[in-house]
Amino acid sequence: MDMDGVLVHEETAIPGADRFLANLRTREAPFLVLTNNSIYTPRDLAARLRASGLEVPEASIWTSALATAKFLEDQRPGGSAFVIGEAGLTTALHDSGYTLTERAPDYVVLGETRTYSFERIALAIRLIVNGARFIATNPDPTGPSPDGPLPATGSVAALITRATGVDPYYVGKPNPLMMRSALNAIDAHSETTAMIGDRMDTDIVSGLEAGLETILVLTGISTRESAERYPYRPSRIVDSVADLAALLE
Questions:
Q1: pTM given for the model
Q2: Burial of 93 (0-12, 13-18, 19+ CB in 10 A)
Q3: Is the Cβ–Cβ distance between 83 and 90 less than 8 Å?
Q4: Rounded Cα–Cα distance for residues 108 and 111 (Å)
Q5: In which element (H, E) is residue 82 found?
């Protein structure tokens, strides 16, 4: 399941989310909370969810940073990267055996941060021009904040692409790779797994392309009307996870 718009809005739990998670635990159903946000580590996110009244263990959180680190570990074990991002991304790459460097890295890895540095973006551009491969954790152009949308990974990636002519490989949703890595993390199979999300263009399409049942909730970005504009449909649409909690009881 997605996190923002499904379980929480900013720092506030969505009504019924606690009951839904409790019912999953009662049934001993394995689950993962997925997020394209690469800023935080699973420990950070578990603490943030706990502060909202939701109990989700670290092991049940899968971020685009973890998916990116797993992808790079598989592609080029023991490689090196120049990283624009925060602890969620740098910790994941360190844990996967990667060396972080500014000198001739194998990859430039772009993630999300609240303090994008012009100097580091300029260095990323030069490294890519000189041959570093370009990876981005996710394509989201904006992220939420109490004051309104903020530029996110996709927007900064577009800037770097315009300057270099090189498109990044995006690992996070809607890339089905993120879904496959999440399935592997809990030893699940697509035929018996559902993806719950609030966005048609990331959650639902990535679940659909990975062969999962897809459930759209209306507590985030999408409405029933906006969902109709897409050429694909979720398996079902519900008002919120509270409706799914009732189904599990």
A1: 0.92
A2: buried
A3: yes
A4: 10
A5: strand 80-84
**Where are the alpha helices (H) located in the chain, listed in sequence order?**
17-26, 42-51, 64-75, 87-95, 118-129, 153-164, 176-185, 205-209, 224-227, 241-248
Closest CA to 86 of 52, 57, 62, 112: 112
Domains and CATH numbers, the chain: 8-36+173-248 (3.40.50.1000), 67-170 (3.40.50.1000)
* Cα dihedral 226/231/232/236 (nearest 10): 40
- The answer to whether the CB of 129 falls within 8 A of the CB of 164 is yes
Token pair for 55: 């109990």
Out of 2, 18, 198, 203, the active site residue is 2
Residue type, 152: A
Mean pLDDT of the chain: 94
Determine whether 243 is an active site residue: no
Give me the phi and psi of 170, to 5 degrees please. -90, 130
In eight-state DSSP terms, residue 208 is H
CA distances from 182 to 122, 226, 239 (A): 33, 27, 25
Q: Which are the contacts of 199, defined by CB distance < 8 A and separation ≥ 6?
A: 2, 5, 220, 221, 222
Distances from the Cα of 97 to the Cα of 72, 73, 77, 94, 186, angstroms:
10, 7, 7, 5, 22
Instruction: Give the containing element (helix H, strand E) for 100.
Output: strand 99-100
Q: Given the structure tokens 């690992």, which residue do they identify? A: 171
203 catalytic per annotation: no
Per-residue model confidence as pLDDT tens digits over 57-115: 999 999 999 999 999 999 999 999 999 999 999 999 999 999 999 999 999 999 999 88
